[in-house]
Amino acid sequence: MQHILSAAQFDRERLEKFLAAASRMAECVKCDGARIADGKVLATFFYEPSTRTRLSFETAMLRLGGHVISVPDKSVSSVKKGESVEDTVRVLSGFADVIAMRSDTTGFLERAAAVSTVPIINAGDGGDGEHPTQSLLDLFTISRYFSLETPLRVTFVGDMKYGRTVHSLAPLLRNFPEVQLRFVSPKELALPKKYQADGDEHLTEISENILKNTDVLYVTRIQEERFADRAQYEKLKNKFHFTAEKIKIMPKNSILLHPLPRVGEIDPAVDALPQATYFEQAHNGVPVRMTLIAQLLDLL
Ligand code: NCD
After folding, report:
1. Are 140 and 180 in a shared domain?
2. Three-class SS state of 36
3. Handedness of CA 98, 104, 109, 111 (dihedral sign)
4. Active site (annotated) includes residue 111
5. Mind listing the pLDDT tens digit for each residue in 220-242?
6. 22 and 146 together in one domain
7. Which helix (H) or strand (E) holds 121?
C-alpha cells in the first residue's frame, strides 16, 4: 500500500509512465472500459474549502465505476467536537478503500498516513505544504502542449510562499533537466528555501522581456487565508494582474495556467486568447485522478 503525500515520490521514470497512463485514461474517461473500480469506495475528507479538487476526485471515482463518501467541510464532522485527525482516519479507513484528504495544517496528512490502513492522498496540505495531485494534472496539461525533453521556460507568478501547488509542481518539473524555472513574487511571498533549487531564477517583477521568453506562465492567487496580517494582504493582493494586452506579448504557442480559483489575477478577457488553458487544466483533473486512484487500488 502506498500513500501520495509529496511530489518527491515521483521520479522521472514514474512520471513518464504516469503521464502515458493518464493520456490513455483521458481518451476513455466515459467509456465502459474505464469502469474498473466497481465496489470500491473513495472517501473525501476536506478540512478546507474546495471546488475543483474534491469534485474532480469524486468525479474520477464515479467515472471509474466506484462509489464516494464525502465530508466536504470539517464543520459538519466530528472534528468540530475535537476529534483528532488520527481517530478520524482510523475510522474512515475501515469504511473506504482510499482517502483523499485536504488539511488546514501542514503535516496533518503525514499523521493521517501513519495510522491509515488504506492509501491517503494529499489533496492540499495547509499553506506551507504541498498539493501533489494538482501538480500531476498541471504537468499532464503541460505535457499535452510541450515536450519535457527540449528546452522549456516555465514562469511561476504570484504567491510562492503559500502556493502549495507551486511547492509540488516545481519539484516535479525538476525531473526534466531541460525545464528552466523562474519564480516571480513580492519578496514577502518568495518561494520558501526548502522548495528552492540550484539553477532557479527569482524575481519580484514581471517584465515584457519575461513574458516574451516564457512558454508556460503559471499564475497563482495571493492566498488571503494564510495572512496573519490583513494589512499586508491588502498591500500585496493586486500585485499581479494579467490583461489580454499583456498575455498577447507572450509567444503564440505559449500557455497560461492557473490552479484556480482566480480572484483578479487574470482578466476575464484573457479567456478568449489561445494561451488561456486554465479551464482545460481543471478538466484534466478527472483523468489524472482516475489514473492515480486506479494505480493505488492496483486496478491498472
Ligand atoms: C489551489 C489550492 O487549494 O491550493 N486550488 C486548487 O486545488 N485547485 C490553489 C488556490 O486555492 O489558490
Report:
1. yes
2. coil
3. negative
4. no
5. 999 999 999 999 999 999 999 99
6. no
7. strand 120-125
Domain extent, residue 256, equals 132-282
Closest among 63, 173, 40, 60 to 119, alpha carbons compared? 40
Residue 258 included in any domain: yes
Cα distances (Å, whole numbers) of residue 176 to 12, 167, 195, 254: 7, 16, 16, 18
CATH of the domain at 81: 3.40.50.1370
> Do 66 and 139 sit in the same domain of this protein?
no
Model confidence pLDDT, tens digit, residues 60-91:
999 999 999 999 888 877 877 888 999 999 99
Neighbours of 66 (CB within 10 A): 25
The residue with cell 523562474 is: 182
102 lines ligand 1 (CB under 6 A): no
Per-residue pLDDT of 156-184, as tens digits, reads 999 999 999 999 999 999 999 999 999 99
Cis-peptide, bond into residue 49, ω within 30° of zero:
no
Alpha helices in the chain (DSSP H): 12-26, 52-63, 85-95, 108-115, 132-145, 164-173, 208-212, 230-236, 244-247, 278-283, 285-296
Neighbouring-strand partners of residue 98: 42
Ligand 1 centroid vs 165 CA: distance in angstroms?
A: 7
Length of the chain as a residue count: 300
Q: Ligand 1 in contact with 167 (CB < 6 A)?
A: no
Q: Is the CB of 126 under 6 A from ligand 1?
A: no
| C-alpha cell recorded at residue 165 | 501547488
Spot the catalytic one: 3, 40, 74, 131. 131
For residue 155, the tally of other CB atoms under 10 A from its CB is 23
Answer whether 4 contacts ligand 1 (Cβ < 6 A).
Answer: no
